[in-house]
Automatic annotation (TrEMBL):
Name of protein: Polysaccharide deacetylase
Molecular functions (GO terms): hydrolase activity, acting on carbon-nitrogen (but not peptide) bonds
Pfam family for this entry, one: Polysacc_deac_1
Record's keyword annotation contains Signal: yes
Keyword field: Signal
UniProt source species: Caballeronia arvi
Xref: InterPro entries: Glyco_hydro/deAcase_b/a-brl (IPR011330), NODB_dom (IPR002509), Polysacch_Deacetylase (IPR051398)
Domain NodB homology per the UniProt entry, residue ranges: 72-233
Coiled-coil positions: none
BP terms from Gene Ontology: carbohydrate metabolic process
GO CC aspect terms: extracellular region
């Protein structure tokens, strides 16, 4: 049986050898904006990616997604969750003169609190299984393993000092308070995760919080409504695609990038083909919309 790594190499080589990556820029990407989604890449990996990306693409802030282009492909760099390792990326952002958006969980960063899926109990219980539970069921299950949302211990998010050092070079925005799957929350939980996160981050940062990212890419019209009501100007999904002035600002599309992607695999992922195939495999979904719980 061919390993997953070997399959990725075959797919990446095929895409680049037949110049599918170049064709996708001309036919699909054009001068639109690809919002790239990372989580916790290593500095060397992101450095390689940005060096390659800037050879054919303008890198712009997320807030410029709807702005007119110059005819060249454009990309915006986003990172979800505010992992502590993101602090190590600051020299890379400065080197490439790139202003990324990091979406923060307001009750995890700046305090000794753990992202729930990084708790050992989450791995024992099954992270994907937990995502499919109602929010109350998930928290009850995690509680059996000693995890509580407000428990202080080993922090996994950016510290207050790290955030302060990065602020001149990074756009910090909202990603809920505790990173639940919003579609598995009741109305009150969902609204609070969206609206209170905004006010907490604004108090922490001293600046207006205007953009939101749906955890795990899960959302419905209800979540969109709460995001609008909270006063955000845009929200990023995990739906596959590119963006321009005609895009729905509360359903911005993205291209998910593996944090450890080799340069070959990164070039392949920029076409959207690997993500499309993954969505088809997991949800029989041919639309490019991310699988929903």
């Amino acid at each position: 049986m061919i390993s997953k790594t070997a399959l990725k190499k075959i797919l990446a080589r095929g895409i680049t050898s037949f110049r599918v990556d170049v064709a996708s820029r001309k036919l699909l990407w054009r001068d639109r904006v690809a919002v790239l989604l990372y989580h916790d890449p290593k500095p060397d990996t992101l450095d390689y990616h940005l060096t390659y990306l800037k050879s054919f693409c303008d890198v712009v802030p997320l807030a410029h997604v709807a702005s007119p282009g110059s005819g060249r492909p454009r990309a915006a760099i986003t990172l979800d969750d505010g992992a502590a390792g993101n602090a190590d990326l600051l020299p890379v952002f400065i080197k490439h003169n790139v202003r990324p958006t990091i979406f923060l969980c307001s009750q995890i960063v700046g305090r000794p609190t753990m992202h729930w899926w990084l708790h050992p109990g989450a791995k024992q219980a099954g992270i994907e299984r937990l995502k499919r539970m109602s929010n109350a069921e998930r928290l009850a299950e995690l509680g059996k393993y000693g995890y509580h949302q407000t428990h202080e211990g080993d922090g996994t998010g950016l510290t207050a000092g790290q955030i302060e050092a990065m602020r001149p070079f990074v756009d910090f925005q909202a990603h809920t308070r505790f990173h639940p799957i919003l579609t598995r929350c009741n109305d009150r939980e969902c609204e609070q995760e969206i609206s209170v996160c905004k006010s907490e981050l604004e108090s922490m940062l001293g600046t207006e919080c205007e953009h939101f990212a749906y955890p795990n890419g899960n959302y419905t019209d209800r979540e969109v409504g709460f995001v609008k009501a909270a006063g955000y100007k845009s929200a990023r999904t995990c739906d596959l695609g590119w963006n321009d002035s005609r895009s729905d600002p509360y359903r911005l599309k993205t291209i998910v990038i593996d944090d450890d992607a080799t340069l070959w695999w990164f070039a392949a992922q920029l076409t959207g083909i690997p993500v499309f195939l993954r969505y088809v495999r997991h949800a029989r979904n041919f639309s490019g919309y991310s699988p929903q719980f």
